[in-house]
């Protein structure tokens, strides 16, 4: 269904035909010899023995040599037509749109250049060749869309590349092609190939942030209660940080639990009530929800575009305030999406996100680096952002992730706590050299009093 798959198919058919021809030749000569030189009545002792026919020996050495050489060249040619090989990220000659596909136990994260992040169902415009960077965050997986091209391993710490292209519209079923743990069998991936206009419409829809109406048979009040439950159970601490699949526009996907079941409201309820019964080994815990709670959550999750993640409006789950202990728990994800080429916190940079806490608040930062480069999180004086040189000294004691200059390695999670002692305007920066220049900074307001908040601000472009 693609030029890449066609090249592999052609090679396979050629090899099969060549193999068949050789088999027929060998078996044919064998049968001929068995009949022609069989023992006949009256024949005594061994037949005459022949040794050393130079012409024959040259022939049976040269023929396989020529055949194997031929196979080498046709295979290399098929590889060239089916795979882009290792690509340098800075290779300006390559103009294909780039998509990132990340294997997780047990689902696929799909990141588009537009910033759209989705899971398990990959939309692709027909007839356009995309480059897909294949990665893994845990163990070795293997991305395999048999109708569209070669199988390729998703290896932690290494990026492999394939071309993704489909000649005709349709839904192509794929799966993880390498045993990766208990959930391996339920790590499916569907490619939805559609005309460019339809793809663009899908992408636009994925970027809209309005909360749609609840699914048929559910009420708006159920969806509202579901949203509260979503916050209560901290679902966002996995689903907004790519530990679990993103749920934004969940209702627009055909697969649930990476293909263990189809995505319908009824299935969603069953799934929420007992995930392990549907997908043994799944990392999502069983929250022992009541049937009513599962129904409320379903109303919310299956609403046309719920729930929102930070790439749209900043989610309140990023900042959780405990009034009793005067503590704000702040979730920071470096490289949350492809905004500013990954130089962002929670999808925001260049001052685009404003965090407010009252003076004297304890701030407990949960910092995860989801980018492909080391990053750090430091709260520093606001003027340091504008200064041409100079470091990013923490403005408060302990207001920095460990090793701020060398940064936290990709995939790592770190926690640090500080007290926002003095009111004023501060900057949240990544102190790895060059990263602030790339836009990796946001704003922290320490107010005299009042409630903490987290908002999308006006980005300083
Ligand atoms: Cu992932 Cu098998």
Question: Helix and strand layout, with pairings?
Answer:
Layout (H helix, E strand, L loop, with lengths): L2 H34 L17 H29 L15 E7 L2 E5 L5 E3 L1 E5 L4 E7 L4 E4 L7 E3 L5 E5 L5 E7 L11 E7 L1 H12 L12 H13 L3 H4 L15 E2 L4 E2 L2 H9 L1 H4 L12 H11 L17 E4 L4 E8 L18 E6 L3 E8 L8 E4 L1 H4 L26 E7 L4 E6 L11 E7 L5 E4 L5
Parallel strand pairs: 1-5, 4-10, 14-16, 15-20
Antiparallel strand pairs: 1-2, 2-3, 5-8, 6-7, 6-9, 9-10, 11-12, 13-14, 15-21, 16-18, 17-19, 19-20
Helix pairs in contact: 1-2, 4-8, 6-8
Bound molecules: dinuclear copper ion.
Give a structural overview.
The chain is α+β, with helices and mostly antiparallel strands and 461 residues long. It has helices at residues 3-36, 54-82, 196-207, 220-232, 236-239, 265-273, 275-278, 291-301, 383-386; strands at residues 98-104, 107-111, 117-119, 121-125, 130-136, 141-144, 152-154, 160-164, 170-176, 188-194, 255-256, 261-262, 319-322, 327-334, 353-358, 362-369, 378-381, 413-419, 424-429, 441-447, 453-456. The strands form five sheets. A five-stranded mixed sheet has the order 3-2-1-5-8, with no helix packed on it. A five-stranded mixed sheet has the order 4-10-9-6-7, with helices on one face. Strand 1 (98-104) and strand 2 (107-111) form a beta hairpin. Helix 4 crosses helix 8 and helix 6 (265-273) crosses helix 8. The two termini are 43 Å apart. The model is unreliable at 306-315 (pLDDT under 50). The structure holds dinuclear copper ion. Dinuclear copper ion binds at residues 103, 106, 141, 176, 178-180, 184, 187.
């Amino acid at each position: 269904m693609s030029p890449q798959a066609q090249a592999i198919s052609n090679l396979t058919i050629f090899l099969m035909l060549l193999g068949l021809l050789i088999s027929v030749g060998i078996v044919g000569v064998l049968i001929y010899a068995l009949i022609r030189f069989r023992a006949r009545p009256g024949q005594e002792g061994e037949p005459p023995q022949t040794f050393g026919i130079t012409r024959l020996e040259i022939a049976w050495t040269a023929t396989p040599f020529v055949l194997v050489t031929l196979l080498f060249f046709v295979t290399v040619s098929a590889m060239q037509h089916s795979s882009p090989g290792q690509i340098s990220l800075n290779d300006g000659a390559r103009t294909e749109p780039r998509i990132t596909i990340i294997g997780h136990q047990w689902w696929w994260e799909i990141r588009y250049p537009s910033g759209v992040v989705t899971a398990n169902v990959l939309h692709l415009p027909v007839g356009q060749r995309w480059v897909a960077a294949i990665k893994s965050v845990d163990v070795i997986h293997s991305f395999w869309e048999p109708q569209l091209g070669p199988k390729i391993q998703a290896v932690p710490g290494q990026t492999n590349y394939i071309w993704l292209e489909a000649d005709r519209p349709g839904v192509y079923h794929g799966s993880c092609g390498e045993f990766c743990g208990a959930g391996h069998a339920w790590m499916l991936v569907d490619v939805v190939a559609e005309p460019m206009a339809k793809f663009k419409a899908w992408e636009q829809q994925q970027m809209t942030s309005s909360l749609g109406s609840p699914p048929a048979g559910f009420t708006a009040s159920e969806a509202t209660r579901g949203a509260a439950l979503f916050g209560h159970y901290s679902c966002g601490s996995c689903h907004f940080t790519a530990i679990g699949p993103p749920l934004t526009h969940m209702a627009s996907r055909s697969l649930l639990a990476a293909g263990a079941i189809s995505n319908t409201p009824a299935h969603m309820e069953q799934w929420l009530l007992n995930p392990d019964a549907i997908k043994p080994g799944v990392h999502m815990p069983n929250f022992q929800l009541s049937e009513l709670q599962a129904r409320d959550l379903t109303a919310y999750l299956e609403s046309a575009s719920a729930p929102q993640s930070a790439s749209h409006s900043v989610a309140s789950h990023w900042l959780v305030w405990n009034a009793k202990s005067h503590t704000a728990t702040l979730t920071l994800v470096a490289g949350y999406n492809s905004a500013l080429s990954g130089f962002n916190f929670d999808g925001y940079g260049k001052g685009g996100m404003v965090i407010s806490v009252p003076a004297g608040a304890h701030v407990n930062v949960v910092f995860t680096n989801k980018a492909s480069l080391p990053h750090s999180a430091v709260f520093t004086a606001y003027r340091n952002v504008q200064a041409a040189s100079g470091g990013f000294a923490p403005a408060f004691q302990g207001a920095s992730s460990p090793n701020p200059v060398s940064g936290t390695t990709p995939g790592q999670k770190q926690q640090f706590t500080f007290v926002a002692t003095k009111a004023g305007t501060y900057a949240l920066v990544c102190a790895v050299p060059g990263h602030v220049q790339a836009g990796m900074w946001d704003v922290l307001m320490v107010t005299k009093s009042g409630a903490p908040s987290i908002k999308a601000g006006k980005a300083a472009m």
